[in-house]
Amino acid sequence: MRIMADSYARRSRSSDSYFRRNKDFQTSLNGAGLYQNPVISSNVVHVLVSLLGILSLCAGQLPTYNRLLMSLIEIKNLAKTYRVYQKKEGLGASLRGLFHREYREVQAVRGINLRVEQGEFVAFLGPNGAGKTTTLKLLSGVINPTEGSATVMGHIPWKRENPYRRRFALVMGQKNQLWWDLPAQESFRLHQQIYCVEPARFQRTLDELSELLDVGNLMKQPVRELSLGERMKMELIAALLHSPEVLFLDEPTIGLDVVAQHKIQQFLKFYQEKRKITILLTSHYMKDVAALCKRVVVINQGQIQYDGSLTGIVDQFSGHKIVTLQFGKDDSISGLERFGEVLEIQPPKAKIRIERTRVAKNLATILSDHSIEDVVVEDPPLEQVIAEVFAQVGGHEDQDNPDEHSRVMD
Questions:
Q1: Range 224-233 contact pairs with CB under 8 angstroms and sequence separation of 24 or more
Q2: Which among 262, 263, 80, 268 is positioned nearest to 171, based on CA atoms?
Q3: Are 329 and 364 in contact (CB under 8 A)?
Q4: Which of 53, 123, 235, 373 would bridge 293 by S-S if both were Cys, CB 3.0 to 4.6 A apart?
Q5: What is the pLDDT of residues 96-143, one digit of tens each?
Q6: 3-state secondary structure at position 169
Q7: What pTM value is reported for the model?
Q8: In whole angstroms, what is the distance from residue 148 CA to residue 78 CA?
Q9: Are 157 and 330 in contact (CB under 8 A)?
């Protein structure tokens, strides 16, 4: 009891000094009407600090009170610039390059700001070379930034601290982390030792994941003999064996057939909803985005151009609606060009692309002039909308400053 009392007293003294420095917490107590009363304030603070300390120690970490006031992922003015050597053709040019080299400066990420809360499933979209993979590499600590700052779960990623590396995972669809010539189960055992996973917990997690992905009968088969979809399932298992709190997915369904894509989508949706982990997903398959993500971040030429809901991106960047009309048997399909772009005519149906602001007016005219049995109004396909977003943003960027993205240096 004396030990517990001494520990409580030390924690109380440290908590007093901490909360005297932390004006945000004082403000929250003032709002609740507690900080004005010194007796109530002291007791409340001591109880809160004790509870937070116990919870954090049970999790095997030092108390981090500011985590209550921070987003899980917080990025501020993050930038990354590469210097790429420009090798000229020919032997003479190669020899001259030994003494005088020309470099091109590529700004892969240019001052982005982003906040992601715990439990979010966020899609990170952009054309090739937009900076998506570079951002994920920065957040996972693979590379260092040129400017700016970022924290993930209170850690600075590029410091590569072991406590941080045990709490996140990175899966890249075009790179393998499993040993090519060994069965997947051997690589899983290696991951168990690297991440210090207890044997009972490891086996329980492995059994759960292999059952969800239906790969239990493939564990003893060398990875090089697996199909692309089966290998990706094994990569996901390897990434999730240590139960990370944050998962970075870089095009996990690239090259997969429709069936394999659907299975991985179902698995990721179920796992994220069950474990409440935070996931950042990059993908060129819009079906992945539509099936998994409620929030979309569009990045182009190293800058974030949109951050919002999936439905919001359609409303903001798509200025048209697709209208499908089914005409009566005796009605002729003619004169539709004056209402919009005619996409398809297969009697008795016709499909027209109409500007959003003119849909109601044009439909009223069509219904009065023709015998229409059925009308369907829908948004254009998501792939088409995203392509329009990339084209609009890319065009504006090139017009504003065509030389800003890269420049040649001696």
A1: 224/180, 224/181, 226/184, 228/255, 228/256, 228/260, 229/256, 229/257, 229/259, 229/260, 229/263, 229/264, 231/176, 231/178, 232/173, 232/256, 232/260, 232/264, 233/263, 233/264, 233/267
A2: 268
A3: no
A4: 123
A5: 878 888 888 989 999 999 999 999 999 999 888 889 999 999 999 999
A6: strand
A7: 0.72
A8: 4
A9: no
